[in-house]
């Protein structure tokens, strides 16, 4: 059984795999736990959580973008970026908050990440001037009245000259991924179906643009980012995790 993250970004891959392999859709955090408990053979997990685990990297389906991501946003209601800021962060993110810390450290901005049980922009901004929104909630905030400070994926790419990678496939052991690889190649044929069947309030025109940014193939650039983050974690250079 293979685990796929239950967010919009994975829908085309899900439809490409449907009926070809047994699938479990859940959060990246829960998928990692199920792999560790042998409840899944493999699945897509947060890159940072993977790098802090003992799981094996399987060089197949992952979530990355060339630069601009759209579903990883630092937002506020009416403020611009300042120093000494507090940022509300959903507990569902590990990799994007990692990137945000790298970006702010690089920019010389002092900050504190405030973990929250909420995921949506409205609740995250109730008690803080800034919020990190990811996934479907970020897409809902993308063309709204919120002030987008920056796209995390774009800033990470600009500052570090690397592609932002958010999730990778992991397993406890070797995993035959031919079916997954074939589905990656076929996934572009399921973009329209993903847009039509989408049950969220994200506008179709946003989804069309978004699916042009999301990539699943494992390549040299993905490997570069994986190794970059791995080295930072090994050197214990990551602050405010």
From TrEMBL:
Keywords annotated in UniProt: Lyase, Menaquinone biosynthesis
Domain of life (superkingdom): Archaea
BP GO terms, sorted: menaquinone biosynthetic process
Protein name as annotated: Chorismate dehydratase
Pfam families, per the entry: VitK2_biosynth
InterPro entries in the cross-refs: Menaquinone_biosynth, MqnA
Keyword Protein transport listed: no
GO molecular function: lyase activity
């Amino acid at each position: 059984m293979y685990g796929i993250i239950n967010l919009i970004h994975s829908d085309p891959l899900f439809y490409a795999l449907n009926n070809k392999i047994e699938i479990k859709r859940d959060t990246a955090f829960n998928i990692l736990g199920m792999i560790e408990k042998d409840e899944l053979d493999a699945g897509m997990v947060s890159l940072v959580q993977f790098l802090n685990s003992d799981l094996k990297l399987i060089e197949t389906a992952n979530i990355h973008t060339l630069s601009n991501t759209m579903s990883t946003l630092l937002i506020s209601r009416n403020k611009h970026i300042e120093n000494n800021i507090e940022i509300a962060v959903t507990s569902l993110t590990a990799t994007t908050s990692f990137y945000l810390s790298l970006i702010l450290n690089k920019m010389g901005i002092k900050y504190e990440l405030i973990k929250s049980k909420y995921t949506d922009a409205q609740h995250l901004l109730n008690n803080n001037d800034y919020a990190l929104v990811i996934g479907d909630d970020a897409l809902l905030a993308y063309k709204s009245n919120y002030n987008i400070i920056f796209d995390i994926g774009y800033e990470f790419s600009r500052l570090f000259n690397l592609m932002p990678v958010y999730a990778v496939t992991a397993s406890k052991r070797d995993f035959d991924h031919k079916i997954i690889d074939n589905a990656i190649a076929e996934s572009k044929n399921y973009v329209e179906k993903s847009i039509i069947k989408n049950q969220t309030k994200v506008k179709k025109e946003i989804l069309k643009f978004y699916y042009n940014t999301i990539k699943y193939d494992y390549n040299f650039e993905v490997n570069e980012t994986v190794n970059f983050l791995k080295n930072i974690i090994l050197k214990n250079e990551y602050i405010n995790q």
